[in-house]
Design brief:
The structure holds two protein chains of two kinds. Chain A is of the alpha/beta class. Chain A has two domains: 281 residues, Rossmann fold; 38 residues. Chain A is 47% helix and 15% strand. Chain A has ten helices and nine strands. In chain A, the strands form two sheets. Chain A has a six-stranded mixed β-sheet, with helices on both faces. In chain A, strands 7-8-9 form a three-stranded antiparallel β-sheet, with no helix packed on it. In chain A, helix 8 packs across helix 9. The longest helix of chain A has 47 residues. By secondary structure, chain B is an alpha/beta fold. Helix content of chain B is 36%, strand content 16%. In chain B, strand 8 and strand 9 form a beta hairpin. The longest helix of chain B has 24 residues. Classes of the chains: A alpha/beta, B alpha/beta. At the A-B interface, helix 3, helix 5, helix 6, strand 8 and strand 9 of A face helix 4, helix 5, strand 8 and strand 9 of B. Chain B: Keywords: Cytoplasm, GTP-binding, Nucleotide-binding. Chain B: InterPro entries: G_SEPTIN_dom (IPR030379), P-loop_NTPase (IPR027417), Septin (IPR016491), Septin3 (IPR008114). Chain B: It comes from Alligator sinensis (Chinese alligator). Chain B: Pfam families: Septin (PF00735).
Chain lengths: 361, 337
């Protein structure tokens, strides 16, 4: 969250002081009370460290009883959607985080149908929200729309795979994509730079729209502007996840212990984990807004344009339309009748006078 | 051979060494010099070795082959330039080199398979590879049944196939299983865990155990195959390799760095230098010793005596005879059988 300047009220005794400068505080207090909701989707092949990264990001264990299936079982499996919700509270601020996992993505030998399930899920959440929004009771709409999608790119390849390109092209109009290079401790620094550049080139070449951090406002302080600039140049983030505490240089850090050294998760020289976390937390609000203003509105206008989909809905609507049209007709007829009556009255009164003035109405 | 239709696979029971009559030599004869004669001959003729590398792009196949043979035998595609895309189908690229060490010449051929496992739909992507391997057997067979055959038949058969497993840390991928199931019957497969510097020691041990178990459960026989152990000595040695070391978790590199005053091949990261030939860091040295220093000849022999013979037997069965030949050799059709 951006640094909040301490509320500076002018002296309440000053004439002309209304007091709405207090508004941001009220909003802040209300939202803190209400808590925040955020839905994060993670997509990527098995074994890229998605679950470990999520656990590291939110310092929790989202998957306590996890059974990893063997390769033979994976042959038959299709992509599944698993949503787990966790409530995290920090300094009085409540966050209801839903992580949508997609096990089975990219596992099959033929991955043609991989993304159908995922796209159907995203559309389904939009549909539900649209339905709730158009409903009568709008007080307690639950927002389950996917606000952000972390797409995990394998560090072992030379860039994006055909599957990566196809998937991102299919969902970039529906959800904010944040590409993440997983297991970054496989790469030396030079290899990382090369891979990042390569991925950015390919993203541009294929016209994939990933989430762009908004530029810092001109009234923010220099630190924040610098931080935003740094974040923007580091996309895609190269991350390493771990929740194990290792002893390094005399203190306990979260990291991975190798025979040749220790990779520290929270060391900015080792990987971009901190940057990813900062980006997510600082821009959580913005991610939600872009989902609402851009992706959801796109979906909504498409939906309303194409009209209702199910057959029963169509019939119901046809009847409704007919009734409405008939009502309209009646109304128009009444209006015409009224106008005619008015004209007649005016004509009559006019005739009385026209004898004098010779007016035509 | 009295059998015209030999069984597809002969399972030799671990035989004992041939019984020998204990003879007391009265003097030195010089029979042991035959080893020296064979050595000299081999050195003069040199020998061929064909190694195939299979795996998804980016797993370090070319780098590993270069590291194995300490020379640039495989063109690294570490930077697919803008124009080079992932090929749409699996291609087979064979590049030959002659390398020499200690007076021994080796004609090494590295067969690369770009495009394997990289598509969205990877069904049957092993078929071009299987076809290539069988084509080499066919070539050899044709040469062998010729009347005027060359003194040394050029051997293009694939002696060894290194299969690169992605180090996910979880398990094998369905594609890995399918490939190995189909191809372990025609070629010697050595599974290798690529880019092993991704895993910590515990993760490595656990992953290797899982992979070994999965291979066993699915009936995949990788090299050294249990059924071809010739004697007890081989069996114990191979058992140890099979159950403990394989699949080898390797790291490849062609860059040298200074460590403790020595120049070593390795990878430099902000948290340390990974030494390729250090057994504490990765098992590259084990793989190299296994493939080159101890089992090179055995790989060739198993390919020739078992895989090739299986192919030959199948061909004889299918055609009811030998492959169609040119007119001149038809008269000798019967005698060659």
């Amino acid at each position: 969250m951006s640094k909040q300047q301490p509320a500076q009220f002018t002296n309440p005794e000053t004439p002309g002081y209304v007091g709405f400068a207090n508004l941001p505080n009220q909003v802040h207090r209300k939202s803190v009370k209400k808590g925040f909701e955020f839905t994060l989707m993670v997509v990527g092949e098995s074994g890229l460290g998605k679950s470990t990264l999520i656990n590291s990001l939110f310092l929790t264990d989202l998957y306590p009883e996890r059974i990893i299936p063997g390769a033979a079982e994976k042959i038959e499996r299709t992509v599944q959607i698993e949503a787990s919700t966790v409530e995290i509270e920090e300094r009085g601020v409540k966050l209801r985080l839903t992580v949508v996992d997609t096990p089975g993505y990219g596992d099959a030998i033929n991955c043609r149908d991989c993304f159908k399930t995922i796209i159907a899920y995203i559309d389904d959440q939009f549909e539900r929200y649209l339905h709730d929004e158009s409903g009568l009771n709008r007080r307690h709409i639950i927002d389950n729309r996917v606000h952000c999608c972390f797409y995990f790119i394998s560090p072992f390849g030379h860039g994006l795979k055909p599957l990566d390109v196809e998937f991102m092209k299919a969902i970039h109009n529906k959800v904010n994509i944040v590409p993440v290079i997983a297991k970054a401790d496989t790469l030396t620094l030079k290899e990382r730079e090369r891979l990042k550049r390569r991925i950015l080139d390919e993203i541009e070449e294929h016209g994939i729209k990933i989430y762009h951090l908004p530029d810092a406002e001109s009234d923010e302080d220099e630190d924040f502007k610098e931080q935003t600039r740094l974040l923007k140049t580091s996309i895609p983030f190269c991350v390493v996840g771990s929740n194990q505490l290792i002893e390094a240089k005399g203190k306990k850090v979260r990291g991975r212990l190798y025979p040749w050294g220790v990779v520290e998760v929270e060391n900015p020289e080792h990987n971009d984990f901190l940057k990813l976390r900062t980006m997510l937390i600082t821009h959580m609000q913005d991610l939600q807004e872009v989902t609402q203003d851009l992706h959801y509105e796109n979906f909504r206008s498409e939906r309303l344009k194409s009209g209702p989909r199910t057959v029963e809905d169509e019939e119901v609507n046809k009847d409704q339309i007919l009734l409405e049209k008939e009502a309209e007709l009646r109304r128009m007829q009444e209006m015409i009748a009224r106008m005619q009556a008015q004209m007649q009255m005016q004509m009559q009164s006019g005739e009385e006078e026209s004898a004098v003035h010779g007016h035509h109405v | 051979m009295s059998d015209l239709v030999p069984e597809p696979r002969q399972k030799p029971v671990v035989p004992m060494k041939p019984v020998s009559i204990n003879s007391n030599l009265l003097g030195y004869i010089g029979i042991d010099t035959i080893i020296e004669q064979m050595r000299k001959k081999t050195m003069k003729t040199g020998f061929d070795f064909n190694i195939m590398v299979v795996g998804q792009s980016g797993l370090g196949k070319s780098t590993l082959v270069n590291t194995l043979f300490k020379s640039q035998v495989s063109r690294k595609s570490s930077g697919w330039s803008r124009e080079e895309k992932i090929p749409k189908t699996v291609e087979i690229k064979a590049i030959g080199h002659v390398i020499e060490e200690g007076g021994v010449k080796m004609k090494l051929t590295v067969i690369d398979t770009p495009g394997f496992g990289d598509q969205i739909n990877n069904e049957n992507c092993w078929e071009p590879i299987e076809k290539y391997i069988n084509e080499q057997y066919e070539k050899f067979l044709k040469e062998e049944v010729n009347i005027a055959r060359k003194k040394r038949i050029p051997d293009t058969r694939v002696h060894c196939c290194l299969y690169f497993i992605s180090p996910t840390g979880h398990s094998l991928r369905p594609l890995d299983l399918e490939f190995m199931k189909h191809l372990s019957k025609v070629v010697n497969i050595i599974p290798v865990i690529a880019k092993a510097d991704t895993m910590t020691l515990e993760e490595k041990i656990e992953f290797k155990q899982r992979v070994r178990k999965e291979l066993e459960v699915n009936g995949i026989e990788f090299y050294p195959q249990k059924e071809f152990d010739e004697d007890l000595e081989d069996k114990t040695e191979n058992d140890k390799i099979r159950q403990e070391s394989m699949p080898f978790a390797v790291v490849g590199s062609d860059k040298e760095y200074q460590v403790n005053g020595k120049r070593v091949l390795g990878r430099k990261t902000p948290w340390g230098i990974i030494e390729v030939e250090n057994l504490n860091h990765c098992e590259f040295a084990l793989l190299r010793d296994f493939v080159i220093r101890t089992h090179l000849q055995d790989l060739k022999e198993v390919t020739h005596n078992i895989h090739y013979e299986t192919y030959r037997a199948k061909r004889l069965n299918d055609n009811g005879g030998l492959p169609p030949m040119t007119v001149e050799t038809e008269e000798n059709h019967e005698s060659n059988l």
